[in-house]
Amino acid sequence: MTAWGRPLVPLRQFVVKMHSRCDLACDHCYIYEHADQSWSARPKVISPDVLRSAAERIAEHAAAHGLETVHVVLHGGEPLLAGHDRLRGAAEGLTTALDGVCALDLRIHTNAVTLDERFLDLFDEFDIKVGVSLDGDKAANDLHRRYANGRSSHDRVLRGIALLDRPRYRHLFAGILCTIDVRNDPVAVYDALAELRPPRVDFLLPHATWDEPPLRPDGDTDGTAYARWLLAVYDRWAADGRPMDVRIFDSVLRTLRGDSSLTESLGLAPADLAVIETDGSFEQADSLKTAYDGAPVTGMDVITHSLDEVAAHPGLVARQQGLDGLSDQCRACPVVRSCGGGLYAHRYRTGSGFLNPSVYCSDLLRLITDIRDRHMSDQSVQPALADEHLDELASGLGSTATTDLLAGHQLALGRELLSLVWHETPPSEPGAAAWDVLTELDQEAPEAVDSVLAHPYTRSWALHCLRGRAKADSAVRGVAEIAAAAALRAGRATTVVVPVHGGLLRLPTLGALSVGETVEQVVVRADADGFRVLAEDRTYTVAWKGDKDPAWQGLRVHELDDWSVVLEDTDPWRDCHGHPAHPRLGEDEAEAWRADLAAAWAWIRRELPQYAPGIAAGLQVITPLRPSSDGSDISSAARDAFGAVAIARPADAESLALLLVHEFQHVKLGAVLDLTDLYDPSCDKLFYAPWRPDPRPLEGLLQGTYAHLAVIDFWFARWRSADGDTARKAEVQFSRWRDQTAEAVETLAGSGALTPAGERFVAGMRGTLRGLMTAEVGAEALRGARQAAGEHRGAWEAEAR
To answer: Which residue intervals define the domain Radical SAM core in the entry (predicted)?
Structure first.
């Protein structure tokens, strides 16, 4: 199905209004206090019939479009007013309808004033994540969030959050939503929220339009009061070591490096959300209620209309146009790919509709550019790993913030290597012109340059040039490829001449174009919808959306839940993993990869959630390898390709999950070793490694030991989540690798070659293993583990003799 001449964008997010009234009277509420007042004519509580039809429509839509996951938020008004039975009915109906169709991410957003253990037991039963509205400390919160009689809601909200923070319910806590009021002290608001230890905070700009602009303090002459407020929070958050995710800051940083946004308020991703009201009517995003009366209306309902019809509604399609749907002023803005024009509702002005910049335009421009400059400044000096970062990584894990620190240092290394390559490259006309383009882009669109330099195989290219392994023209060609890719990512109509090798134009982070063996150079230039490549007497046209030249091999980007990952099967420099890289995947093989990655990622998030934040933050690229001749699993992480792992697609999703967590351990430790000396490099002794047939140098043993912390966690989770023979085999594997990794840790500790930082790191690994030693395994599993370990050691010793 198409929508207004474009392929239909399926809907993946749904807000189900459980109750249309609220027990608070917040004076900044977009439902009750803004232009659209349709709530007053709707039923107070959603009916079982509407819930049933809504679940059926969502399941029907998910099946038709092969969706991997749908996200449903139970909302209001205040959804807890719907009561336990009605909420249970919603959870049961959605779970049943989607069983066997796709995964369900079910959440509820509440003011928490009536949240109790009975509700939380229900949410635990159905794994319903809970988000809570809170605007900061008591003074900040009570500025708006009060009962109708003016009484404070703050203490009751804190009581609800305290319940969520109990160990039995902590896994349900999704985070806090905080609406900004610039009259509140930003640091005090941040501190009050951080004290509650939420996993995530959403700071929201108050809903406003050009007709009803936001409150601005006296003296806000440049219109950046909200940016200054948020930047004060950003600085405090960064100084604290980023203890929780902050959606707006994480989204800015992600979009600056070319990834997707985590919020509809930023970025250019198409809207994919629909609202189901208590009367069963379909509406667009609730934020539109602030524009004008009837703005969210579609005229459709769950009884008589499909979600395909909703997705094709002009109002939704208008929010799926990317750059094409923005005003001329927005399209010319240097931060448009991060800002995306801001929240759609905030663009509204009578007479011109939504074809305007955001009413927060000046705030968004300053926020994005200042975060960009702060982030670049942070990376301009090699960051040292503080003890707390080293300890966290030594445990085998790594938070988003710590992984970002490693990634930032790798980017700084990439910049240094690029400069060294250019310094040692003989002058040439194409090279000099490309370098000029790159220099200009680095001033005007540094985030686009960073996105290309952060590509894992850019470093592989640079090191080959510097080590003299690459052909003489590789340096000039690589600089031109980077300049062209950065210009295209920045949307700049800049012409770049790029030398070609082997008939292939490489555009790192984008893909490759086959132009014929006889072509020596091409001209690359962006246009309104994509780019053109002039090669001798032929022009290739590549559109970002729609038809593409058959010669174009674009990277396949998979947007999974909170993880954006690329299947890289085009870059010639990807062949650095010690195993043959798979050639370009066919469509069926690529689809099989997508399905397996989605299933493996769902397994990791469910069974190994402690590894998910680091992987989502630091693993950008998966390079497919050729399968082994005997069907055994193959995987690798190259020391000089941070952010990438290479894998031959295994037989099942669980095996893929194991390879992902295993290899990403190597990626992290490689980055640690770039920052911190953990051992004396002059040590030339070789050591026994329980997982290898050959003696290993100290770094090899360290790498294997660290990777096996994740292997142990995998087998423990597999043991606990499976049954029958699968569980018995997993128990043996857990027992074996736990005990042998502990042995390897003691070998490292006794090597005599560790630095003080290395001793601290190894002690951290020992501490993690000590906790795993408390898990009791059965006698049969213990015998099997010891037998396997003994056979390996015996074979190794026989070979050594």
So the answer is: 8-242
CA distance 636 to 143: 55
3-state secondary structure of 146: strand
pTM, entire model: 0.68
Quote the strand ranges of 278-421, DSSP E. 281-283, 297-301
Q: Are 306 and 275 in contact (CB under 8 A)?
A: no
Q: Give me the residue label for tokens 């134009």.
A: 505
624-670 pLDDT tens trace: 999 999 889 999 999 999 999 999 999 999 999 999 999 999 999 99
The partner residues of 504 in beta bridges, in order of sequence, read 501, 514
Output the pLDDT for position 472: 64
User: What are the respective helix, strand and coil percentages of the chain, to the nearest 5?
Assistant: 50, 15, 35
> Do 152 and 142 form a contact (C-beta atoms < 8 A)?
yes
Q: Is the dihedral of CA 304, 307, 308, 313 positive or negative?
A: positive
**Residue 567 to residues 448, 559, 620, 651, 801, Cα–Cα distance (Å):** 20, 11, 9, 18, 44
What CA–CA distance (Å, rounded) separates 579 from 708? 21
User: Count of CB atoms within 10 A of residue 546's CB?
Assistant: 10
Burial (CB count within 10 angstroms: exposed 0-12, middle 13-18, buried 19+), residue 263: middle
Q: For 770-779, how does the pLDDT look when each residue is reduced to its tens digit (9 = 90+)?
A: 989 989 999 9
Structure tokens at 321: 């146009």
| Ordered DSSP codes for 384-449 | P--HHHHHHHHTT---HHHHHHHHHHHHHHHHHHHHHHHHTSPP-HHHHHHHHHHHHHHHH-HHHH
Amino acid sitting at position 258: G
Integer Cα distance of 198 and 56 in angstroms: 33
Distance of CA 505 to the CA centre of its chain: 29
Q: What whole-number distance in Å separates Cα of residue 661 and Cα of residue 363?
A: 39
Q: Kindly state the DSSP code that residue 70 receives in the 8-state scheme.
A: E
Buried b (16+ CB within 10 A) or exposed e, 338-366: bbbbbbbbbbbeeeeebbbbbbbbbbbbb
